[in-house]
Write a structure and sequence with these properties.
Layout: E1 2-5, H1 10-21, E2 27-30, H2 36-43, E3 53-56, E4 59-62, H3 64-75, H4 86-115, H5 123-142, H6 153-167, H7 176-187, H8 192-209
Parallel strand pairs: 1-2
Antiparallel strand pairs: 1-3, 3-4
Helix pairs in contact: 1-3, 1-6, 4-5, 4-6, 5-7
């Protein structure tokens, strides 16, 4: 099972962490998607030439949420990470869509403005990010995890968005429930400290290239 990835990418982090939780061994293909030759290589499998891209027995799938769902439905020993109960699953799906359309979008816009454009984020960007964090804070105040009383793929995907902010030393002090939730989620993930160390090292290398 080949996985084209770069650990600096939050969507790739989500897939890698789901794989770790499921004890999946990927044939890892670390790539820099910004290079023209890499985009051309990926285009052979994925017309959007994005990462992560997963290939298993000729089956190609991209978009981190779709990959995470695929891996859980095929390889999980039970349905805890993506519950089959329609009501519980609807909350997991809602949190995934929230991450895609609100949390990740606000975080990546904020972070890239600082790292790539070397500019202070606009007031609008700051307010959108604060609103996203306030919503996540309310979600994890209601229950121990983002969508259920146990870990789901929604937590893993949202964690990658929040970790991106931690990487630029964004202040999470105003969000105590998020801080406690991060500790709970990372405590459920195998060898997370080792994973996070590699993430920090690769992120620093990436930042130096900007």
């Amino acid at each position: 099972m080949e996985l084209y990835f770069n650990i600096v990418s939050p969507p790739c982090q989500s897939v890698l962490l789901v794989g770790k939780k499921l004890d999946i061994t990927f044939d890892l293909k670390e790539v820099n998607p910004h290079l023209p030759e890499v985009r051309e290589q990926l285009r052979k499998y994925n017309p959007q030439h994005t990462i992560p891209t997963l290939i298993e027995d000729g089956h190609v799938i991209w978009e981190s949420y779709a990959i995470a769902i695929y891996l859980v439905e095929k390889y999980a020993k039970d349905d805890s990470l993506y519950p089959k109960d329609p009501k519980v699953r609807s909350i997991v799906n809602q949190r995934l869509f929230f991450d895609n359309g609100v949390m990740f979008k606000a975080a990546i816009t904020y972070v890239e403005y600082i790292l790539k454009k070397k500019l202070e984020p606009t007031d609008e960007m700051v307010q959108k990010l604060k609103k996203a964090l306030e919503l996540l804070e309310s979600f994890v105040k209601e229950r121990s995890f983002a969508a259920a009383d146990h870990l789901t793929i929604a937590d893993i995907c949202l964690l990658s968005s929040v970790t991106m902010l931690v990487g630029i030393k964004f202040e999470l002090e105003p969000y105590p429930a998020i801080q406690a939730w991060v500790a709970r989620v990372t405590g459920e993930l195998p060898n997370y400290a080792e994973f996070h160390k590699e993430l920090l090292e690769k992120s620093m290398e990436y930042i130096k290239t900007l």
